[in-house]
Specification:
The protein is mainly β. It has a domain of 86 residues: Immunoglobulin-like (Sandwich). It contains 1 helix and 7 strands; from the N terminus they run H-E-E-E-E-E-E-E.
Length: 145
């Protein structure tokens, strides 16, 4: 019996592709040196800019806001947290698909953020960060004479 490493990102039908295993290790995870275990929780994050403010939206459903942490130092924004598994005495598990554990994701901004101006809110499973650009980074329109 041959054992094959399971990868949740494989689509049905691609398992027998000669090159699939080689490219999986090369292209993923694209997390800038972070190690990702498929048994742990890694939130998806959207980053966009609007009105001279950079927004981060991280999907962290099932967390309490007390279990989340945001650090801003210079150009680095770090989002971390922990989802703890609740053990039920005498439980008989039929299936366990939810992921638990600690996570940490760091992102680099194109500017030094002022941590006193960063706003964070957690609502409906989404952690939203608002990071205003510093004055020297804002686009200024110059009047032509």
């Amino acid at each position: 019996m041959q054992l094959t490493r399971w990868n949740p990102r494989h689509r049905v039908g691609l398992r027998n592709n000669l090159f699939s295993n080689h490219f999986d290790d090369f292209f993923s995870p694209l997390t800038h040196g972070q190690t990702v275990s498929y048994n742990s929780f890694v939130p998806s994050v959207d980053i966009f800019e609007k009105d001279e403010t950079v927004f981060f939206e991280a999907e962290v459903p099932g967390f309490n806001k007390e279990d989340l942490k945001v650090d801003v130092k210079g150009k680095i924004v770090t989002i971390s947290g922990e989802r703890k598994e609740e053990k039920i005495e005498g439980e008989n598990n039929y299936r366990k698909e939810r992921r638990y554990g600690k996570f940490e994701r760091s992102f680099q901004l194109g500017f030094d953020a002022n941590s006193s101006t960063v706003k964070a809110k957690y609502e409906n499973g989404i952690l939203t960060l608002e990071i205003p650009k510093p004055e020297e980074q804002k686009v200024k329109q110059i009047q032509i004479h």
